[in-house]
């Protein structure tokens, strides 16, 4: 890890939701860039960083050594939030995995005492919104982050009852308020158009088709 490599806008946005002095767990840490950044800038003192695979954990250990933070970040090999025991962390970040995988991880296990979940799905954020509401978390904020021709979603959720979805989780009230919402709709429509049209032509009623039709309606309203 290059000392001068800045955190990507996507991870920087996730980091901006982490409360000062919280007990953080970074799930699927890979290179451990997020806890390194947060400790270095004084937001947190230490963290748990987990991954399911050995390679990323070795990379994380190397980076922590490079930054002199080996004693401040506890590395754990675990599946999803199983890395954290009840009341061991206040805040967990799950970034850089697909929305469907994240939704499975959330449904498997969420440790007690977690006050904040910060989630950055690489794809299909609606899986995450649906899973959060099933797991007793409500979305309090969402950010849209453009990075290298892509647009990423960052979801911040806290324990609480979520309002029922009338749009299957394809958007949230927080997303709709974002200044880049219209751009995000256009980006997402372009991304899913080909597979949605193929499915429509084949008579299939997939999630992508439902999302496509809803997004199109929503986008037209904004023109
Ligand atoms: C693309 S990296 C993202 C790294 C970092 N969080 C980021 O956003 O840049 C995804 C990481 O998640 C890990 N991962 C995949 N499935 C996992 C699981 N079930 N539990 C924990 N980590 C997992 C992978 O091994 C990989 O290191």
Secondary-structure topology with pairs:
Elements: H1 9-16, E1 24-27, H2 33-40, E2 47-51, H3 54-66, E3 73-77, E4 91-97, H4 99-108, E5 116-121, H5 125-134, E6 137-147, E7 150-159, H6 173-176, H7 181-201, H8 207-222
Parallel strand pairs: 1-2, 1-4, 2-3, 4-5
Antiparallel strand pairs: 5-7, 6-7
Helix pairs in contact: 4-5, 7-8
The structure holds S-adenosylmethionine (SAM).
Strand content: 15-25%
Distance between the termini: 44 Å
Radius of gyration: 18 Å
Question: CATH superfamily name of the largest domain?
Answer: Vaccinia Virus protein VP39
Mean pLDDT: 95
What portion of residues is helical? 40-55%
The distinct ligands, each listed once, are: S-adenosylmethionine
Q: What is the CATH class of the largest domain?
A: Alpha Beta
- In total, the number of domains comes to 2
What string gives the helices and strands in order?
HEHEHEEHEHEEHHH
Main sheet? Answer: 7 strands, mixed
Largest beta sheet: what is the strand line-up? 3-2-1-4-5-7-6
The beta-strand count equals 7
**Unreliable residue runs:** none
Number of helices: 8
Query: Do you know the CATH architecture of the largest domain?
Result: 3-Layer(aba) Sandwich
Shape: globular
- SS-based structural class? alpha/beta
């Amino acid at each position: 890890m290059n000392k001068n490599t800045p955190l990507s806008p996507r991870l920087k946005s996730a980091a901006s939701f982490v409360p000062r002095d919280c007990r953080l767990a970074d799930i699927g840490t890979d290179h451990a860039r997020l806890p390194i950044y947060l400790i270095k800038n004084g937001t947190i003192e230490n963290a748990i960083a987990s991954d399911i695979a050995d390679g990323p954990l070795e990379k994380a250990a190397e980076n922590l050594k490079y930054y002199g933070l080996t004693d401040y970040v506890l590395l754990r090999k675990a599946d999803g939030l199983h890395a954290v025991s009840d009341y061991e962390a206040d805040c967990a970040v799950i970034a850089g995995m697909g929305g469907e995988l994240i939704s499975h991880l959330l449904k498997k296990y969420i440790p007690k005492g977690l006050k904040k979940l910060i989630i950055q799905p690489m794809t299909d954020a609606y899986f995450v919104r649906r899973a959060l509401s099933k797991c007793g978390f409500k979305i309090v904020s969402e950010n849209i982050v453009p990075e290298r021709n892509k647009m990423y979603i960052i979801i911040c959720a806290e324990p609480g009852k979520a309002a029922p979805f009338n749009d299957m989780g394809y958007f949230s009230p927080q997303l709709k308020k974002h200044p880049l919402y219209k751009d995000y709709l256009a980006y997402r429509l372009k991304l899913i158009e080909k597979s949605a049209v193929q499915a429509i032509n084949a008579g299939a009623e997939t999630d992508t088709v439902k999302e496509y039709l809803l997004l199109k309606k929503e986008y037209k309203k904004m023109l």
